[in-house]
Each structure stands twice: as C-alpha cells, then as structure tokens.
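look at this fold:
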Amino acid sequence: MAEIGGYIITLIKNNWAILIPITLSLVAIIFTAFKDFILPWFVKPKLQITYEKGEPYKRQANINAGQNQLVVGFFDRFKIKNVGSETAKNCRCQIYSIINEKGKELHLQGFPIKWASRPESAIDFIKAERLNLAPGESEFVDLTNTRIDNVGYFYFQPYHNVPIGMDGQVTLKDYTLKIIISGDNFKPYFATFEIDGHPKEKHILEIILKEVSRK
C-alpha cells in the first residue's frame, strides 16, 4: 500500500501541469451539469394566476376595425405571476377547450392567447407567443375582447391577425373556457373561466375564474 501511495504521489508531482487543467475542467463540467440539469429538477417556477372584475383586469381601448376605423373595445385580461424561485421559460397561453351551455365544444383548441405586453406590430408572432417570467415578474394576458359595433359577440385575437384556420369571433352564450399555460420547465397550468352569456351590459363580458389546476 505504501508503494502504491508513493507511486501516486510521484505521478502527481511529475504531471501536475496536466492534472490541474483536467481537474478544473471536470469541476466546471460537474458545476454546469448541476446548474443546468440537476438543480432545475428540484427548483422550479411556480405560477400564480388571477382574475378580478375591475381594473386592471378589465380595460377599455380603441380597436382597429379596418379601413382606418377605430371602435371602442373592452378587454378582459388575467394575470400570471411567477412566485417561484426559478425563471419560467418560454411561457405560452392557448385555448385548451371551450364548451357552451349545451355541452358542445367549439373547435378552437390550440388558439393562441396574446400577451398584453406584445402589441401586434412589435414582434414576429412566432416569437411573441413565448416569453420568460423571472421570479417575481408578472404579465397580463388578453383573454377576450368585445366591441360596441358588434354586440352579441366576443373575440379571441391571434397574433398579427395571422389566419390560423380558426374563427376568433364567438357568439355570446354561456361558456366554460379552459386555458392552458405551458412552458419548457414546468408542468402545464389550466385556468378555467366561466363566461356569462347574459351580461347586464351586452358589450361588457361577465367572467369568473372558476379554478386553476395542473395535470
């Protein structure tokens, strides 16, 4: 054993110039693996999803109706806040399902729901659908909007008005609307909203956030 120990010490002394960079490289690899692959399994983002009936969840704004015409619109928005200790990466929001009072499902699965901070003209719609939420950050999402020139309907708007094979105009009725919030480093969240088909004011929706769940 003493001979083996002496041999190892001699080997180290004779090759220290080679062993030091190898050791440093191994330490760097282990640290990177821990930071990028092991730690994220234990430290994950945690999203808090809220909706209320007043400002800033309900907003009035002018909407482009085409041919240089603006109409008054009313937006319903919900808020997503990262209350965890890790950045939520590449978050996106889509319609998971929308079912009317008769149990019939509208074919709007996968329809992208817009981040309120991403105006149509500002960025490519493919990149606009996804954003990162650092710990403590929050963003609003434009859930639906109504227009005073088209009472009896509400709208989901795609990014840049790109045709995606789905009609974003929906007849005003009672609906159960489920939104999926997904990302690269967390399990999806599902926010379920109840839309009242008989609001007191036809151009202002009455919406309730029924529950937030995960699968």
Summary: Residues 120 and 160 are 5 Å apart (CA to CA). The chain has two domains: 2-42, 47-214.
